Amino acid sequence: YRWNDAKDIPSAFPFGFGLAYTDFKLQGFEVKCKDDFPLITFEVANVGGRDGAAVPQLYVGFPSLKPAVRQLRGFQKVEIPKGEKAPVAFRLSKPDWSFFDEAEQRWTSAGELGEKITVSIGTSSADLVWHHTLPKECTREKDAIEIVA
User: Fold this and answer.
1) CA-CA distance, 70 to 44, in Å (whole number)?
2) Which of 29, 30, 52, 76 would bridge 22 by S-S if both were Cys, CB 3.0 to 4.6 A apart?
3) Running DSSP on this structure, what letter comes out for residue 92?
4) 3-class DSSP state for residue 122?
5) pLDDT one-digit tens code per residue, 108-147
6) What's the 3-state SS for 4-64?
7) Following DSSP, what letter does each residue of 54-102 receive, concatenated?
């Protein structure tokens, strides 16, 4: 999915593609800074005619990730009876917007560089229904965290 997204070429079967045998709606998105890190919450509603399982996915993108546009940073499988809703939450942290800087030979945080960090949520890499730029106060850590590869 990363290559296809970078080249803007649609995939025959995008990452996360699958048959749910029902329909879902992702709604009520919120972003809060909790303990200086982003917490993304929303609901998944089963709007189809039968019980089913949804697998919402969270992607993170930032300029230093190039050539990739975004990368998968979380997913959750939620079983939802028809006509019902289920809450979903993703908590992000520094490794989610970090990359290995080959020139510096170390892990670097896009947040510390002041880069725009975008979160996208959907049911597959080709069906992203929500995009949001994270507030800078949620992505700049007060203490340095070493990321071990």
Assistant:
1) 22
2) 52
3) -
4) strand
5) 999 989 999 999 999 988 899 999 999 988 887 654 434 4
6) HHHHCCCCCCCCCCCCCCCCEEEEEEEEEEECCEEEEEEEEEECCCCCEEECCEEEEECHH
7) E--EEEEE-GGGTT-S-EEEEE--EEE-TT-EEEEEEE--GGGGEEEET
